[in-house]
């Protein structure tokens, strides 16, 4: 019998499915629940156990991991008679890996404490590829002892794992991450259009740019998206729109000016309004092409 903690996993989307599978590969017993039957079938095929409800999934779990799109979904699965807090055992550790508002994380930690449940907010960066390869960056908010307990599990999911401060700190750092990523993708997209319209060999140009100071993880991960106009979602525009709302609102609350971030947030919103919300965030290239007079 494994001495590893029993894990309940709620949310098996683009990120959640490969992450849960990496836990199974690491020897964890994972019981999962999500709304899509095909995702449950995938978990079962990978060696996980399928639950018929949140309550069933979390009842015997030592650790509950959640990976859902936004604050409303976190609140929906956490609260209420059928939610995590009413059905997880006292002493369980809830690790929320969703990207939500810092205040939602703070409120969840307080509500969970009343039930004897400990909470970490642990959003991730690295996209679908990082989830598959188990090289995610994981930014954590919560208590040191809970972080220490969760770290072996998190090490099966990511490469850079850092406790950033008290509850909500992980979400604050994730908001900053999404600001940097969006601005970086936008800059890359503008460079791609500029290079192409100038008649330069785009692949050669991106290769040499990525070897210098302009290089970045964003360019490494998204270069082929730009070259092939492949916008299959690894991280959807819809979700980045949500995250830009989080960072602009949080920045306003603390009095931080985000002039470039505000412009990129509007560009993300415009792309979504034009029907591209389901595409990968590298599709910001389409917005720049439209602004440059191209038919997209």
From TrEMBL:
Alphabetic keyword roster: NAD, Oxidoreductase
Molecular function as annotated in GO: 2-hydroxy-3-oxopropionate reductase activity; NAD binding; NADP binding
Enzyme Commission number(s): 1.1.1.60
Record-linked Pfam families: NAD_binding_11, NAD_binding_2
Record-annotated 3-hydroxyisobutyrate dehydrogenase-like NAD-binding domain positions: 168-287
Record flagged with keyword Methyltransferase: no
Active site as annotated: 174
GO biological process per UniProt: glyoxylate metabolic process
SUPFAM superfamilies the UniProt entry points to: 6-phosphogluconate dehydrogenase C-terminal domain-like, NAD(P)-binding Rossmann-fold domains
Oxidoreductase as UniProt keyword: yes
Domain of life of the source: Bacteria
Residues of the 6-phosphogluconate dehydrogenase NADP-binding domain: 6-165
PANTHER family, per database record: 3-HYDROXYISOBUTYRATE DEHYDROGENASE-LIKE 1, MITOCHONDRIAL-RELATED
Family indicated by similarity: Belongs to the HIBADH-related family.
NCBIfam families xrefs: tartro_sem_red
Protein name (database record): 2-hydroxy-3-oxopropionate reductase
Organism of origin: Streptomyces parvulus
